[in-house]
Amino acid sequence: MRQNLARAKLIDGQPVVNGWCSLPCAYSAEVMAHQGYDTLTIDMQHGAIGYESAVAILRAISTTPTVPFARVPWHDPGLMMKLLDAGAYGLICPMVNNAAIAEQFVAACRYPPRGFRSFGPNRATLYSAAGSSAAYAAAADHEILLFAMIETRDGFANLEEILGVPGLDGVYIGPGDLSLALGAPPSMAPSEPSVVAAIASVLQAAKRHGRFAAVHTDGPATARDRFREGFGLCTLQGDVRLLADAARKQVEETRAMSR
User: Is 90 exceeded by the pLDDT of residue 186?
Assistant: First the structure.
């Protein structure tokens, strides 16, 4: 089965740079995937992406070595299974507030006896180059990465129990929601002391439990700092923000030169 290169990097302590897709467009995702990201996440929570678009995007990403991830919109086992069957090699689950939700998340994504994932890896068999569905099923639990998002007061309060769930690979901090939950303005680079302390606490707890720690950022400078702190995976700005920023910059520069 095709190795999950992101998993191998995390195990080796190498930084994993994650890109973000919110546009329901396979072509833009293909362009993103060709830029050298280690992983590229299809955002089905806040992005404008449905299942059919996600499948097309997974196909586009597979034209590159970039590892395809997806963020599901909710704790929906059916959608999780369909995304894995379509070839996702990592899932990020939002609003994991307690161990019970984390256990449900893991169980939906692992085959029996570890979980209850239904057997039927359609496109996943092709993408993984496993050769057969049975070969894919034998290796999938080992290769697929599962991250629980820590972004609420309950999730933060129940962090130790969540990290103790067998089969969970890591936690993913959503700093915007976590900031709001702690009474601060939403930010991808929080400076509020309570939020800064909470992020550091999540990182240290993940290390104690031998789990990977991932976090959203506002770009390279913050990602550099997070990697230095010990995070294994950092998400940079997504396709929508990159497009908007680049377009705005060109318009502003053109208007300035035309005065």
Answer: yes
Listed as own residue / partner, the contacts of 59-62 with beta carbons closer than 8 Å and 24 or more positions apart are: 59/26, 59/87, 59/123, 60/26, 60/27, 60/29, 60/30, 60/33, 61/29, 61/30, 61/33, 62/87, 62/127
Give the tokens for residue 59.
């196909």
Per-residue pLDDT of 142-162, as tens digits, reads: 999 999 999 999 999 999 999
What pLDDT is recorded for position 259? 84
pTM value? 0.98
CB 111 within 8 A of CB 143: no
**Rounded Cα distance, 150 and 96, in Å:** 6
Superfamily of domain 5-258: Phosphoenolpyruvate-binding domains (3.20.20.60)
Residue carrying the six token digits 């992983």: 39
Please give the Cα distance from 86 to 54 (Å, whole number).
9
Q: What are phi and psi of 65, to 5 degrees?
A: -75, -5
The pLDDT of residue 251 is 97
The Cβ of residue 17 has, within 10 Å, a number of other Cβ atoms equal to 20
Measured in degrees and rounded to the nearest 5, phi and psi for residue 230 equal: 125, 5
Residues recognised as catalytic: 46
| Per-residue pLDDT tens over the stretch 85-126 | 999 999 999 999 999 999 999 999 999 999 999 999 999 999
